[in-house]
Design a protein that fits this description.
2 copies of one chain form a homodimer. By secondary structure, the first copy, chain A, is mainly alpha-helical. Chain A is built from 10 helices and no strands. The interface between A and B is large, with 63 and 62 residues. The first copy, chain A, binds a DNA duplex through loops.
Chain lengths: 218, 218
DNA sequence: GACCCGTTACTTACAGCGTAAGAAAAGAGG
DNA sequence: CCTCTTTTCTTACGCTGTAAGTAACGGGTC
């Protein structure tokens, strides 16, 4: 079998932008963003680093592709008539869950405007839904922007907090609880007592608050 | 003059964590985050790279310091009794303006929980204000988190959009306007017509919406 | 003055990075 | 068989963060 090139033929058949991005996402999920180098990614794919430059123009584009790939995995923003608030709430929840599955790409999602061709479709249908609900077009764009920004930011804080909690570093609740109780009494209290709701519930509450605000003020 | 060590004595007198961080912030503001290397920063300070490790344990800590330094520059969140909504609106506006003065650190601000000792004071006084206004403590923390996350995220999008606009790349309004008008009619329309408000006004509107939502739902 | 010592600074070195340039191999069509 | 295109590998350059060791300084004590 396999009349060999350098490695056994067929075990890596194909290679494509998609496969490169998927491997990069897997690498980053496994070992963190800092571990992603062209050489390492090449090794994961059974290929030399420079080979990757046939599927991606440079490393920055590869990072863009990672963000794009994650956003694709979130549920589409489907517009079902006048029920725009539950639709946006579902979309927000889905996007949050997807982002938390790939926490390593969150720093990337923050620094790049998520308007790759793939995400434009979601924005377009969101705009249609909100315009049908009576929003002026500009305001509709604002609502979508605000919601998306909030979801990404919230997920980033959740991920950072989780990461920091499991090592007792500054920012963890354990760290908060041992703070100088004289200088920061409320912080210490908030750090000690369970706030009574988990991250998902707190997120949902905040999203509803945001959307309610836009509903009233529009 | 200057009985010289290697460089003229006195022209760089001192050097301290603060001076290192300030120089790093200046460098990053001038040339971007990617241009920040220990060697370059050292050169800016008239010093070799390794010298910096006396004031900062490693590069990551230096980046943490950058974020801390920027947050210090925003107006403090002062609690003036029951007027919590205008107070938070002012705080949000000040933080946004400060962040936009140093757009290069925005990616850093996103990935790090902004709970350095310096920012804890702001959180504490925010908590006091909101608790006095009747919020349960956990909810008060949620409000502050949501607001801060939103401000950072919004500033990041503004900065990224501005950067991308001035080079006509994907994501710019120019790019949006030339999109396939058949597939994305609303996006194209939103991209063409001025939305009628500048970034600051849109930001203020969204902040008010968010706070109004928390007010009603609390 | 001479001595010493902690702090600050420099030098050297290493492994790894992104990627430019060009050679070599593999597959397709004649 | 040869030739052309696409894919892959090789080599090389300048840069990075930082570990390790060394030298110079400033200030205290005799």
């Amino acid at each position: 079998m396999a009349k060999g090139h350098k490695r056994a033929r067929g075990e890596r058949a194909g290679l494509s932008r998609q496969r490169v991005l998927d491997a990069a996402l897997a690498l980053v999920d496994r070992d963190g963003l800092a571990a992603l180098s062209m050489r390492r990614l090449g090794a994961d794919l059974g290929v030399e680093a420079m080979t990757l430059y046939h599927y991606v123009p440079n490393k920055d584009a590869l990072l863009d592709g990672l963000v794009e790939r994650v956003f694709e995995q979130a549920a589409p923003l489907t517009a079902d008539g006048a029920r725009w608030r539950p639709a946006l709430e579902r979309y927000a929840g889905s996007l949050r869950r997807t982002l938390l599955l790939h926490p390593a790409v969150l720093p990337l999602a923050m620094s790049r405007p998520a308007v790759t061709p793939q995400t434009l479709g979601a924005v377009e249908s969101g705009l249609r839904m909100l315009r049908d609900a009576g929003f002026p077009l500009g305001r509709a764009l604002d609502v979508l922007n605000a919601l998306t920004v909030f979801v990404i930011g919230h997920a980033a804080v959740e991920a950072a907090t989780a990461r920091v909690n499991e090592q007792g570093a500054p920012g963890s609740t354990a760290y908060l609880a041992q703070l100088d109780a004289a200088r920061f009494p409320l912080l210490v209290e908030a750090g000690q007592g369970g706030h009574g709701a988990d991250d998902a519930a707190r997120f949902d509450y905040a999203v509803r608050a945001l959307l309610a605000g836009f509903d009233g003020g529009a």
